[in-house]
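User: Last request for today: this protein with pyridoxal-5'-phosphate, please.
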Amino acid sequence: MSASKKILLSESEIPRNYYNIQADMPNPMLPPLHPGTKQPIGPQDLAAIFPMELIKQEVSQERWIEIPDEVREIYKMYRPTPLYRAANLEKLLDTPAKIYYKYEGVSPAGSHKPNTAIAQAYYNKMEGAKRLTTETGAGQWGSALSFACSKFGLGCEIYMVKISYDQKPYRKIMMNTWGAEVIASPSTRTNSGRKILEQDPNSPGSLGIAISEAVEKAATTEGTNYSLGSVLNHVLLHQTIIGLEAEKQLALAGDFPDIVIAPFGGGSNFAGISFAFLRHNFQEGKNVRCIAVEPASCPKLTKGEFRYDFGDTAGLTPLIPMYTLGHTFVPEPIHAGGLRYHGAGAIISQLLKDKLIEASAVPQLECFEAGVKFAKTEGIITAPEATHGIAQVIREAQKAKVEGKQKTILFNLCGHGYFDMSAYQAYFNGELVDHELTHEELYSALEALDTPKIN
Ligand SMILES: *Cc1c(COP(=O)(O)O)cnc(C)c1O
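Assistant: Here's the final one, the structure of the complex with pyridoxal-5'-phosphate:
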């Protein structure tokens, strides 16, 4: 008899609340600081670019925060997402471990990102915003916000990292289809962009630069707010719907995870799958291991420093207490564009500092090898970001085999890779390499930081 491979929930089982981990964290986070005064920021400092409801969520200590009906209605287009048992992968690996994955690639944009984009567009609309600005790297977040803005009749202006703008024309056209305006960053529209272009007219751009442009535009334009797709507490909050659903689905299978794994860029999909289970560690003393997996070429969790740093390159955002490689760190142009960010969100950073979660860094070639194995066994061609999670799953499954231990592993399959075929092509052509970071490459941006240290 074979176990059921796909576990579905009905629409009525979409969670009614987001889970706010701040209510249960053993140690509170340090406050974000104003970039100018270096004093803790207050709600008013953020009001120029965010709606008040999101500012409240950013600091809320309420354990459960209700999901508005309008947001749940739109979630029904693709939620609850399926949970699968990766039985074919288990067989290939000949492992005693049970492997499950939650598949977020069924959303309109093809990743977990609409979970927060829809909520953010809703709160902005309710508070009278007319237009949102944002940045996008590989294009996943830009697609998600374009879709969400189209649902609420909001304008959407997207600063897309120049190199991706040139390399990923189809992501751009997707955003255009949902009605967004897409601008290659650095651009001449903002002071931040013009300054970079003066120094380097051929700048390929970076997420940090694009964030500076989008924040500046929102801060200086009436009726326009800014929206971020990862890192911030309210973004992580909205993503907890993933793990809350997975918890119900695993219960239907009579299971509970020993290990939860997700790829890590700024922390939103990792938070999404893991926080619901960390809650059992905090409340019931369970011992679920939660592992965030980053690229070896952008190793802020495993090699970065815990200190205050900016979220963007120009230094316009508040200073956040985070594991960082320095806000001017420019990662190698690896193919997992969504993981090329210099820092981690404040919640994740505090959890890692307190050793309540784990981190692992995996090189690019191991990731693609894992992604191809997964495609051949389970059928889904995943985003290059997601292959990082799969590579770690394979490591853990092999360890379980060596130790002869029955383990249940859950991972978040955060997105499909159907717009990332050029990355797979480069892999098959042998053009991808594992670049070993020199000490200089790894630490020069950190050494140049003059942001406050944390003892
Ligand atoms: C954006 C993105 C990531 C990285 O961001 P997180 O906030 O760390 O989740 C990873 N995978 C996919 C598919 C993404 O779109």
